[in-house]
Amino acid sequence: MFLAVAGLMTFSAQYRTANAQDEQPAATEQVAEAAEEVAAPAAPANDAFAAGASDQPLHQQLKAKFIEGGAGFMALVLLCLIFGLAIAIERIITLSLSETNTTKLLNQVEDALKAGDIEAAKDVCRNTRGPVASIFYQGLDRADQGIENVEKAVTSYGSVQMAQLENGLSWITLFIAIAPMLGFMGTVIGMIQAFDAIEIAGDISPNLVAGGMKVALITTVGGLIVAIILQIFYNYLVSKVDGIVSGMEDASISLVDLLVKYQK
Questions:
Q1: Do residues 153 and 249 both lie within one domain?
Q2: What residue numbers bound the domain in which 1 lies?
Q3: What is the separation, in whole angstroms, between the first and last Cα of the chain?
Q4: What is the reported pTM?
Q5: Cα 50–Cα 226–Cα 188 angle in degrees, nearest 5
Q6: Were both Cys, which of 38, 183, 211, 212 would link to 193 (CB 3.0–4.6 Å)?
Q7: Are residues 117 and 34 in the same domain?
Q8: Rounded Cα distance, 118 and 258, in Å
């Protein structure tokens, strides 16, 4: 009887173990199916969020970053860009109007000097815009005082014209220097805010550090972008001024040569 009871108990235990092993894969499959059903609607939601972020207009993205970087410092950086671009555009227009067809002007002055009419040469210079014509007028106005006085007048008035051409460039260099400094100041302030938040919370949390670091990085990037843009305009203006000044020097030498030639 004992052997029969022991055999029955052993058979029952083996049967229960087999059923449990058969039921375990089925339960695992049910859990996996439920997880897929839960994850299935979440994927489209994530895709929709990503699509919404990517479909956002550029000006709205810039506006959001501007606000996240701190309106105070980002506004100062933006003012540097606005003022710098305003001065750069004004200088571009002024320098473009200052360019003169030197060859044509020299030919007209030479024709007047051939005829011995200094006043006609002055009228040509008076009716021509640009620093080269102004220098010619100053030189011709002192033609009766000798070549040395003409050279002095041309040199002196050429320096004045050069200073007028370079007017405003110092402000652009100022904004080029200030914009990154403001960005770096925003960086320091963002780091201070991050450490203040850590000190108040008493714990180092990625969320606390990320807020201050985000402000720091956005202000730094804004300052560097403004400096790069203004630096490109500044280099263009400097090259334009150098070209005009070189033309002024060549034209001044040609004017002196013409006066020496036709006064003999």
A1: yes
A2: 1-63
A3: 152
A4: 0.68
A5: 80
A6: 212
A7: no
A8: 12
